[in-house]
Amino acid sequence: MRAIVERTNLVVKKINEELNCFSMQVSTQGMQMLFLTAQTYTNSLANSLELIYERQPLLKLEKRKQTEKESFIAKLTHNDRAKDESLAVQLSNEMSQYYQMNAKKDSVSEFTAKMKSVQENFFKSHIFNEIENQCIALANLRQDQHYQFTP
Question: Coil, strand, or helix at residue 27?
Answer without folding.
Answer: coil
